[in-house]
Amino acid sequence: MSQSQQEQDFTVLTPGVSYQKKKVLVVDDEVDITTIFKLVLEKVNLHVDVYNDPLLALSDYKAGMYDLLLFDIRMPGMNGFELYRKIKDIEEEEEKVKNGKPRVCFITAFEEFRSEFKETFPTVEEVDCFLKKPIPMPDLIKKVKSQLGLL
Question: How do residues 120-138 score in pLDDT, each as one tens digit?
């Protein structure tokens, strides 16, 4: 990819147009992952909160706060699927759907994730976003922007 193509991936804003920053929550037990995701996604004018502990992310979670959730699947203490289930419960209890429920993408280094997800959530059809580690940063940006309706 040429440098100009890479620069285009980081260009989101149009001069003179007002934008409200979309909010993204990243939860991954690997500090390197959360650090780079935060740096890269903030460069495309997103507000990004990161946690390396899913239990702390859950305890701090407020319904209606995020537009997109990026959760690692395999984490100590609570896996990404469990975290998603508990956050869905919080969203439903609070009934804060002014902007709709947040979309979710799962992050994994493993191949067998879709079948595990379907086993955990047999009736959930709305999740179709899985990011395989390692993910090139232009691909991350494109996927996130797509999930947020920014493409």
Answer: 665 555 667 888 888 999 9
pLDDT above 90 for 77: yes
Cα dihedral 98, 139, 7, 42, rounded to 10, equals 40
Asked if residue 69 has pLDDT above 70, the reply is yes
Q: Which fold has domain 20-147?
A: Rossmann fold (3.40.50)
Contact present, 85 and 53 (Cβ < 8 Å): no
- Residue 30: what residue type? E
**Residues in CB range of 151: below 8 A, 6 or more apart:** 142, 145
What are residue 51's DSSP bridge partners?
Answer: 27
